[in-house]
Amino acid sequence: MNYKAIFISDVHLGTRFSKASLLLDFLKAHDYEELYLVGDIIDGWAMRRKFAWHQSHSDVIQKILKAARKGKKVYFITGNHDEFLRPFMPLLLGDNLEILDNATYTTQKGKRYLVTHGDFFDSITMTQKWLAHLGDKGYDLLLHLNQALNFIRRRVGIKRYWSLSKYVKDNIKRSVSFITDFEGVLIDHAKRKGFDGVICGHIHKATMYSIDTVEYYNCGDWVESCTAIAETHDGEFVLIDWLHASHKD
Fold first, then answer.
1. In the beta sheet, which residues pair with residue 36?
2. Pick from 28, 75, 12, 50: which is nearest to 242 by CA?
3. Pick from 231, 195, 233: which is nearest to 214 by CA?
4. Pick from 1, 11, 102, 193: CA 20 to 30 A from residue 137's CA?
5. Which residues are within 8 A (CB) of 224 and not within 5 positions of it... i.e. 6 or more apart?
6. ∠ at Cα 202 (186, 233), nearest 5°?
7. Distance (Å, rounded) from C-alpha 45 to C-alpha 157?
8. How far is the C-alpha of 236 from the C-alpha of 6, rounded, in Å?
9. What pLDDT score does 26 carry?
10. Cβ 230 vs Cβ 199: under 8 Å
11. 172 by DSSP, 3-state: which?
């Protein structure tokens, strides 16, 4: 498939849970003019704990760098897990690779979208980093439990992947409230700044919807859902679910 632009976030290269191999397959299967890496592509927090860098992680980086060398525009938006890059912002690496805190994307139809990871709009990440790190460790625990539960499910003949962490995000009241608040703050900010929409990541919950004429698009992640947002050459936005698309017969 060929798109005007593709947006991905929360790959978390450097962790054992990053589905880098699936992302590499995705990048090989899709062409684009512009690629937006919307934060948490490399997990700097993991570097301080238990770093896990596999060949597939290097392959993803090389694939992206090769695309930039071939003339594709690549924008690396920093997130809280790769905030170690922020002191150097903005940084232009060659003609086609730029690292920055946020960007403005203009669509085929002339609409303007704020592209930001989203951590600047997360009060916990910005004001209580110790709590954010604690939550990150809790999320890692849920991912470990995911692996154990799905191993058992496969042993009893249930092949479809089920995510405990997604269940928690979708059903635990405080988690649902946090996600709703996060989305609302971003939408309000985009509206105040005159944007037609916002494209973000951070909360690992892929979605597309609009409120008060403002579009909210979240790229999801490449730890569990393996999703991306893309704009077609006709100016339409789509949410790509690569985890399920790549497993179709």
1. 7, 75
2. 28
3. 195
4. 102
5. 17, 19, 143, 146, 163, 165, 166, 204, 243
6. 75
7. 36
8. 12
9. 98
10. no
11. coil
Query: How many angstroms separate the first and last alpha carbons of the chain?
Result: 18
Based on the number of CB atoms within 10 Å of its own CB, is 201 exposed (0-12), middle (13-18) or buried (19 or more)? Answer: buried
Q: Which of 119, 148, 124 is nearest to 134 (CA)?
A: 124
What is the percent of the chain with per-residue pLDDT over 90, rounded to a whole number? 55
Tokens 């100016």 identify what position?
235
Distance CA 74, CA 137 (A): 31
- Which residue's entry shows tokens 């770093």? 51
* Per-residue model confidence as pLDDT tens digits over 120-155: 876 444 444 534 444 455 556 556 566 666 667 677
Sequence-distant (6+) residues with CB within 8 A of 238 are 229, 230, 231, 232
Q: For the segment 55-86, what is each residue's pLDDT rounded down to a tens digit? A: 999 999 999 999 999 999 999 999 888 878 88
* Structural domains present in the chain: 2-245 (3.60.21.10)
Tell me the residue length of the chain: 249
Q: How many CB atoms lie within 10 A of CB 29?
A: 11
- Residue with tokens 């930039």, as numbered in its chain: 68
